[in-house]
Write a structure and sequence with these properties.
Blueprint lengths: L10 E4 L7 H6 L16 E5 L2 E11 L2 E9 L5
Antiparallel strand pairs: 1-2, 2-3, 3-4
C-alpha cells in the first residue's frame, strides 16, 4: 500500500462561478464582493484533478468550515 501514499490528487471545491473582465478584477480591493452564479442553498461541486466527483454542502462546526459530500458522481466508462 505504500505505493498509494505517493499519489497526488488535487481536490477543488467550487462554491460558484462568474465571468468578469480582467480590468474589473484588477480594480478590486480588499473586502470586495464577487457575485457568483449560485446561492447558499445550491450544492458545491467537488473536483479531483479537474474531474467532477461529487456534490456537497458547507457546514460550520466550532468555527471550522467543513465540506460534507451529499452525492457521489459516477462516471460511465
Amino acid at each position: 500500500m505504500s505505493t498509494l501514499d505517493n499519489i497526488e490528487v488535487d481536490i477543488t471545491v467550487e462554491l460558484g462561478a462568474t465571468t468578469m473582465p480582467v480590468h474589473h478584477l484588477l480594480r478590486m480591493g480588499r473586502g470586495a464582493v464577487i457575485e457568483l452564479d449560485a446561492t447558499e442553498n445550491d450544492p458545491l461541486n467537488i473536483y479531483a484533478n479537474s474531474t467532477l466527483i461529487a456534490h456537497g454542502e458547507v457546514s460550520v462546526e466550532d468555527g471550522h468550515l467543513r465540506v460534507l459530500i451529499s452525492e457521489k458522481i459516477f462516471r460511465r466508462g
